[in-house]
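Figure S7 source data.
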Amino acid sequence: MSSELIDVSKRVSELRVVQSDWESLGVTGRVRWVRRYANWLLDNADLLTELLVAECGKPLVEAKVEVTVPIDIIKYYCRQAEKSLRTRHPAPPNLLNAVKRVDVVHRPYPVVAVITPWNFPLGLSLLDAIPALLAGAAVVVKPAPATPHTVVAAVEGWAEIGAPAVFTVIAGDDDAGRALVDEADYVQFTGSTATGRKIAQRCAERLIPCGLELGGKDPAIVLADADVELAAHGIAWGALINAGQMCTSVERVYVVDPIYDSFVETLAGHVRSLRRDLDVSSLVTAEQFEVVSRHLADATASGARVLAGGGTEPAERWVEPTVLVDVDHTMTCLREETFGPLIPVVRVGDESEAVRLANATTYGLSASVWSRDIRHAERVAAQLDVGAVNINDVHANLFFFAAPMAGWKESGLGSRLGGADGIVKYCRPQTVTKPRAPLPLQRLLLWYPYTDFRTNLLGRTLRALAATGRRRFRS
Ligand code: NAD
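Tokens for the predicted nicotinamide-adenine-dinucleotide complex:
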């Protein structure tokens, strides 16, 4: 066994030792530490932003968003935590149970593993780690091997404020991720569908839960009554932010025939005006450059036309923001996740064809629908097999963190964010029953010895509870 893997096991054991004190601190105590941590993140936002730009090559504004939006989410969760984790006292389901008082307590999974990809290393790590910490779990984050530095620096901040040692980072490779899945009590994973499937299998073997946020192939549907200018600008940003390396990137555009020509002209003009590095950056890894170049080459070789962009520079991992037309579902750029700055646009006869093609994928992360008539767009949204639909906008659900983000089909399992659910998912319910009064009803009716009298009495009582009307009383 390599020393790195022994380290994973040792690190998780160390977390187990300190986790119970963290849980015992109570939600108020934990919120206090997390608020201090949010302030540390704010005070060190410039450093974290620089690190993100250095290791991901993001445009500055996108790096700033990735640092500051999670802090807003952390503050939101701090406000929610007390209420979300409050002990519940369900009302008795029948008269017999009225003699009991019941507490349903939220007890955390002791060690939560948060495994993240390279496209939003800091944002995705904090988004999942902080609700788990607030729930009372100890957390170990494993960032992608290509982009560990910002996460390492951010987790150091937890130690720097003197918080209990329940938050740590393991900056290892895929093997370290595998070792972590073998040790943790709950795995929250963001990454590719292929890896998510492997993690789900291992978690099933270990009988531990996992939350999976996986890949996507998000469609945009532009209806005949859309504001073409708005749709073209929104879709360009939705497809090209982070150079298209976003799970919810717009990866397919279906435009109905009457407005197709004006839409593609506006879109291509806008995309041609974007500036290298300032608006759209290079891809993060050479592997991703290979995938995007392959999709582009396959499309053009199969008859697609390039209306904007189309150029590549392998040494710089640069792919020009590219608008492709005359594309169809035989091409990889419409079937597989591209994760890059390609915008394939399909002309469709009507909206039912758009809906059919939008749903013709194994993914189901999110979608956008563009129309001046919100009711019209809502009717289309209701036909889409995805976890979120943004009307006249892109990525909007991600910023509305009181709502859940949940991938359907092969885009995920479970959900993240979503108010109380985002914290409570890291807990197991523990039910504690207590006698309300010293009335030994259980003993009288249920416990040994079984006698004819008890059998009779219990039978009549249970029948009276289960039935309604005349059936309560045996004739
Ligand atoms: P990836 O699946 O290759 O790797 C993600 C993480 O998993 C890395 O930290 C990696 O080291 C680790 N890992 C790899 N194999 C593992 C294993 N067997 N066990 C445990 N850990 C393992 O993904 P990537 O290429 O880094 O990221 C891109 C993917 O992430 C895209 O498919 C994208 O759509 C997806 N993504 C999804 C969301 C979402 O919220 N749905 C957000 C961002 C990215």
